[in-house]
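Let's practice the habit of predicting before peeking. Look at the sequence and jot down your guess about where helices and strands might fall. Then scroll down.
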Amino acid sequence: MRHPIEEYNKRQATTLAEMPEEQRDYMARMFRIGNATYCYYNRVNELSVFRKAIDESEGEEIATPEDLLEWLQKRLNPQQESRSARELLEIYFEEYLAGLPHDGLRRAERERGLDEARRSFPFRHYVLERHDMGMGEFLRMNLSAEDYAFHVECGRADEPKPLTDGNELAA
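Done guessing? Here is the structure:
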């Protein structure tokens, strides 16, 4: 998958051209997977759900913290929900905090607060997943079968192995 910012495509092409040939296929695959991941996290911008803001220094499109609130407001079904988007976002933030695996991380995120979390990729990922916009499915649909299989296999290699006490029975 190509990067949505053409300047990055040029940089990637230059990097690939300067690499030893035996490393190019691997790095090209990593760029495609990285580009797809970038697109997932910025998917809300591409779908025009979030309002676009321009970072003057870089000229790149970025989502403002208010975008997440506006997106939620549009997603609310007035017949189902009586909550405002801000209230729903606060509920999501509490759910997000409760799901963090470490008390120290949870405290740090709580101290930073909701307004800072609205800028973070992990919280955006949580909200997208909460609204059935999963990263796995997005990558599966936007990568080649080979690239997606590679991505999945790399993810399995990073999965933590279950702790054992050495007294397990052989299967």
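How did you do? The chain has ten helices and two strands.
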